[in-house]
């Protein structure tokens, strides 16, 4: 006779189709008015009806496994809310609440006791000792098992040390309790401690878990790649996959997940085809997502395995060339989206507040990426690494790091690249850099080991392949998306064309141009290039420098090399008088309307930190 605790294993062995699990709990609780910093686990006691409604919605959507609302119901996490003495009560009530909902549904639904990470690093990387972690996990798991769960789901784990202690605790409480152990991965397809999907799968298999899982992380595309690698490492293993609804984005101060329910249809089939035994959702997924998964699995015939979604499979294989998920800039340019980039200079001192305020304004206006310059005009400023990191961390908008070769030897170049990648800065714009002779420190070292084409080649053929300049391994490939400079109105067009070809041959992924004020000249140059080498197939973001005053326009025309402003535009700025900034915005908007017809994006260079002016222009082009 099959006991309750073996129902899960029995269903795994007899079913020819994946078992459908539910989706996010926290996302829905927040949507229903629960504060994000509240203790979600305590709601099992204080607001059981809210939790019960979510369980009920997932059951109606077709979920066959429902997780208890106990992801953070361990002693260390509950202690933050002064609830560490209620571990047993909260877990027991969670199971009891879910049992009542399942009983009322008259459906045969399995209960997964949800066990999340402890929220503190374990030794040897933290102060919490392994035996202490074992006791904490055992306290929660004992309460769940005694309350009557059908299986234990150990999920969103970031290191295999914690998984081992949690699995040991589950086996100590009940040797026969089925266990799913699920890890989460960063964008570079590694755990936070650097383990690959293959290494994780092998370790899980050695621990004897019933199902090897991957959850959270990014969207379905990333988890499909991870699942394939895990399955390759442990061909006979059973697997669970529960993706987020895409990579999270910060929109209007809230974390949003872009992947809608219908997006999960093809991926449910691909997960099944790859070998998933359990399919569900994580952050951002809703009953609507789970309903699509359940209906897809229910209505698809078994023979679909012969030929399923070839376009999707080709797309997934194509992204294998990236060490991690491509940057959003790369994805937008590849999809043909018209991209808006905005340049920002780092501050001269310690205060970063104005730059962050500007970044917030630009993100809300709809800019796609913020480019942070490196010591423009060879003047001392804060390192752009810090500015990029703070902008990305606080506002969720991607940045492009300007990376001059000036003043850097090979050691410094490679160390700086590793630092940028470690801070999730994956877009870099490679330039020579302004000579120190024109800046604050004219006697500063101006030497370099690499010209821009050499650095582009080092990144694309070296770092992005997992090796440094000498051929030594760097542990894993980077995924830099590399930009280079282009002049659309050069004094020597033939030389510029030769330089462009070298940059393309070295691997440049996109170009940023100097400010353009005459589109006819830009078109003429592009035609010259096409006559020699054919169409330029690398995306070009055309430089836009909104004029602020008549004096500003005259200064740029007469004193800044490479910038020519036509007489008619200078005349418009002069005639505008006190409304010159408004006229400059109109001129920029007119140029962008022409640019949209022929190029892939624009690259704003705000004068005098007028981010408000750029935001207004972005608003106009998005209408």
Q: What's the gist of this structure?
A:
This protein is α/β, with parallel strands linked by helices and 623 residues long. The protein has two domains: 8-321, Alpha-Beta Barrel (TIM Barrel); 338-622, Alpha-Beta Barrel (TIM Barrel).
Please characterize this protein's 3D structure:
- The protein is α/β, with parallel strands linked by helices and 623 residues long.
- The chain folds into two domains: 8-321, TIM Barrel (Alpha-Beta Barrel); 338-622, TIM Barrel.
- The chain has 24 helices and 18 strands.
- Strands 1-10-7-6-5-4-3-2 form an eight-stranded parallel β-sheet. Strands 11-12-13-14-15-16-17-18 form an eight-stranded parallel β-barrel, surrounded by six helices. The chain has a two-stranded antiparallel ribbon with strand order 8-9.
- Helix 6 runs parallel beside helix 7, helix 9 (197-207) crosses helix 10 and helix 21 runs antiparallel to helix 22.
- It is elongated and about 80 Å long.
